[in-house]
């Protein structure tokens, strides 16, 4: 009787051989992919670290005030001052740089793909299985190929974050485009609008709340990768969590995790409000 005791399909060996082949033959290609991410991340990180902390806090508070309310602005100030007093200001800045860098690339890639998927049933059907795989694959699984192809460090962490956080903005952009009432599109076409004008003046403006919801989810998923990215040498607020785990220092792990939660709450409230601006 066949009992599945022996491995018949050596899929793990095939995958290992494939990755080794990519690394040996096409490292130059992955360095090209890595270069813009590295430039963006280093620019953001160096820029934020060069700015005095109080200036960054003031800018974040103004953004929170203009997008939501004075209460969130006060909460934003209190949050970042509290994190600074915990001694984690530099780690917070590195985390913000990593999140903002990954969100920039997710937006540049995700919104055009989402618009294309929203306007093409065939492309949407081709894209759906890939998005399903990206969302259901455990985050730790990304780390091995990312490290082999791009080495370790902050850039590798951002690349892993991009892959992990990309699906929500694609899906919700596609959903927002598809939710625009067909009669509105037909009316615009009847008045002589071109396809580009229908997209930019009808579909995208009406889909903007849904697109911003996708951006919000992308930011949240990017923040959720902070701790996991720290396992491959990325800095930021994930580093004290991983260090606390390795040394069983519950206090260090707690303040790192608490800081991530507080930053996530602030960014969540701000991006939610961007999709529904104050009247």
User: How many helix segments?
Assistant: 12
Radius of gyration: 22 Å
Overall morphology: globular
Q: N- to C-terminal separation?
A: 71 Å
Derived from helix and strand composition plus strand pairing, the structural class reads mainly alpha
Multimerization status: single chain
Strand percentage, roughly?
under 5%
Helix content: over 70%
SS elements, strand count: 0
Report on this structure.
- This protein has 279 residues and is mainly alpha-helical.
- 85% of the residues lie in helices and 0% in strands.
- The longest helix has 40 residues, at 11-50.
- 34% of the residues are buried.
Keywords:
279 residues, globular, mainly alpha
Topology:
Elements (H helix, E strand, L loop, with lengths): L10 H40 L2 H15 L2 H16 L3 H31 L1 H16 L2 H12 L3 H26 L2 H9 L4 H30 L1 H5 L7 H10 L2 H26 L4
């Amino acid at each position: 009787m066949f009992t599945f005791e022996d491995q018949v399909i050596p899929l793990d060996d095939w995958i290992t051989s494939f990755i080794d082949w990519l690394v040996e033959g096409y490292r130059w290609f992955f360095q090209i992919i890595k270069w813009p991410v590295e430039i963006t991340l280093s620019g953001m990180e160096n820029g934020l670290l060069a700015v005095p902390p109080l200036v960054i806090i003031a800018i974040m508070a103004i953004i929170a005030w203009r997008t939501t309310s004075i209460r969130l602005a006060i909460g934003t100030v209190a949050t970042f001052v509290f994190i600074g007093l915990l001694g984690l200001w530099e780690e917070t800045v590195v985390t913000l740089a990593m999140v903002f860098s990954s969100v920039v690339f997710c937006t540049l890639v995700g919104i055009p793909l989402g618009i294309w998927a929203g306007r093409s049933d065939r492309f949407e059907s081709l894209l759906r299985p890939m998005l399903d795989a990206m969302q259901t694959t455990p985050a730790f699984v990304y780390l091995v190929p990312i490290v082999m192809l791009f080495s370790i460090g902050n850039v590798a962490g951002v690349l892993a974050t991009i892959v992990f956080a990309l699906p929500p903005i694609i899906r919700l952009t596609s959903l927002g485009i598809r939710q625009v009432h067909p009669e509105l599109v037909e009316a615009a076409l009847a008045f002589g609008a071109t396809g580009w004008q229908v997209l930019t003046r009808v579909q995208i403006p009406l889909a903007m709340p849904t697109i911003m919801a996708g951006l919000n989810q992308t930011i949240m998923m990017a923040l959720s990768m902070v701790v996991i990215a720290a396992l491959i040498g990325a800095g930021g607020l994930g580093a004290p969590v991983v260090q606390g785990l390795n040394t069983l220092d519950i206090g260090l792990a707690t303040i790192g995790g608490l800081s991530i939660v507080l930053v996530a709450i602030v960014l969540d409230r701000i991006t939610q409000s961007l999709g529904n601006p104050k009247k």
